[in-house]
Amino acid sequence: MTEAVDRLFWRMKGNEVTEAGLLQTPQVRLEKPLLIESSTLEGRLYLCANEDQARDTEAKGGICYLPAEVRTLIEKSGRMDEAARKDYLNKMHMVKRTFPGSRVEG
Predict the structure, then answer these.
(1) Peptide bond into 17 cis (omega under 30)
(2) For 2-54, how does the pLDDT look when each residue is reduced to its tens digit (9 = 90+)?
């Protein structure tokens, strides 16, 4: 994802999944956490399919997002201009860094 989630373009098994596609997909199937290098968040994060994957990855120091969290971030930041969106996403990411295991809720 290069825009935080960096406009949310992910490569999964060679297919590009867009923000619109993610919002229309009820489930994202990931066999293992997907490592994402984010230029917006200036760091690494993981997209995890479920709480078990997230807990395991967080136990190793990773910052994880579940599909529902990503949907919430997209919905909440969708009407913001780029500067406000980046600021909002960075603040949310800082909370997840500061409080491992925290979740974004709608």
Answers:
(1) no
(2) 343 333 433 333 444 444 555 454 455 678 999 988 888 888 999 998 999 99
The token pair that represents 81 in the structure block: 């201009």
pTM of the predicted protein model: 0.71
- Distance between CA atoms of residues 4 and 21, nearest Å: 15
More confident residue, 11 or 61: 61
Per residue, the 3-state secondary structure of the chain, as one string, reads CCECCECCCEEECCEEECHHHHHHCCCCCCCCCEEEEECCCCEEEEECCCHHHHHHHHHCCCCEECHHHHHHHHHHHCCCCHHHHHHHHHHHHHHHHHCCCCCCCC
